[in-house]
Amino acid sequence: MALGLIVSIVALAYLLRRDFSGVQHELRHADYWVVIPCLAVSVLGLWLRSLRWRVMLDNRLAARSSFHILNISYFINAVLPLRVGELARAVLAARVDPPVRIFTSLGTIVVERLLDTLAVFALIGLTLAILPVGLEIGVVGIVLGVGAVAGTIVLTVFARRPGWAHALLAFGGRFVPPLRRPALHGWLDQLLDGLLCLSSPRAGLQVIGWTAAGWAASVVAGYILLFAIFDEPTWAASMAMVALASFVVAVPAVPGNLGPFEAAVAFGLAGAGLVDQASDAPSVAFALLLHVVNLATYILMGLIGLWVENVGLGEIMQAAQNLRARGRAPEGDAELAPGLHSQT
């Protein structure tokens, strides 16, 4: 938390060091009417991502439940540190009737991260095709993209051949004693259950389609909001800032990634040529506005999700903390969510 606070302060200080009054001027004269269509497209993007997660779970959740549970997890990630929202999502899915096992949900989250990584590098590739950049940046993008593809292939193989995954775990147990625990094979079965969508061509194509649609919605929402500050925004600028901002979740910062998020967006706009420098007043003002709109969307939709699912935030957090701290066996899933009883 201390490191995150330092990173956030340094990032904001860098962005605001030159022209704070200019940033205030840009925000005072922004065209805020574009926030409404931006919010509408952002909510549509959340719906598309919830449909992807539902397909990954083999439609074991109702569309409404997957939407609200996903929104709750994003809300928690936006206001609390350490990505606790991912655990909260698994806990909430375990309370529906019939329940989705904890490690099955966590397995789908792993697949989501890999697919989102591929989507980010697709955006980077499109941006590089439009903008003149150095060869080094292109090489880094290709290497990381190949790594994401390789990881997806490995998971697909394990989804089709679960015995190979168990054999690999048993082989690792010869050298690493903690891997010999019998419970690990039960956890592995549930994790592989979350990868089943990759073993079916039809489900796999659906997941890829919803992934592309969700990221397209993010780019469209960003492009719309650019009109609040800029007279002539570009699609390349929207793609660049969305791609860079997706990386900041891995950077230590205060909850909500305040500071690194603004820096990523500002550098994306500068890289796309919309501003001369990342610290220019229009780019900083837009980055702050975008962050506020994103947080407002997550908080609003998350609160609606809590109300619809009839569950308290404190209960979810306690169950998520229990899951992280105790690491119980799969058969103990019901005990991981004390007080979280299905309302359906």
Provide a descriptive summary of the structure in words.
The protein is mostly helical. It has one domain (2-336). The protein is 71% helix and 0% strand.
Category from helices, strands and their pairing: mainly alpha
Give the low-confidence spans.
Answer: 328-344
Helix percentage range: over 70%
Shape by Cα distribution = globular
Instruction: Spell the H/E element sequence.
Output: HHHHHHHHHHHHHH
Mean pLDDT: 83
Strand content: under 5%
Number of helices: 14
* Rg result: 21 Å
N/C terminus separation: 38 Å
Largest sheet: none
Strands, total number: 0
Task: Return the domain count.
Answer: 1
Keywords, separated by commas or semicolons:
single chain, mainly alpha, 344 residues, disordered C terminus, 14 helices
Task: Give me the secondary-structure topology.
Elements: H1 2-16, H2 20-28, H3 35-56, H4 63-79, H5 84-93, H6 102-130, H7 135-160, H8 162-173, H9 182-193, H10 201-226, H11 235-245, H12 260-271, H13 281-309, H14 313-326
Question: Can you summarize this structure?
Answer:
By secondary structure, the chain is mostly helical. The protein has helices at residues 2-16, 20-28, 35-56, 63-79, 84-93, 102-130, 135-160, 162-173, 182-193, 201-226, 235-245, 260-271, 281-309, 313-326.
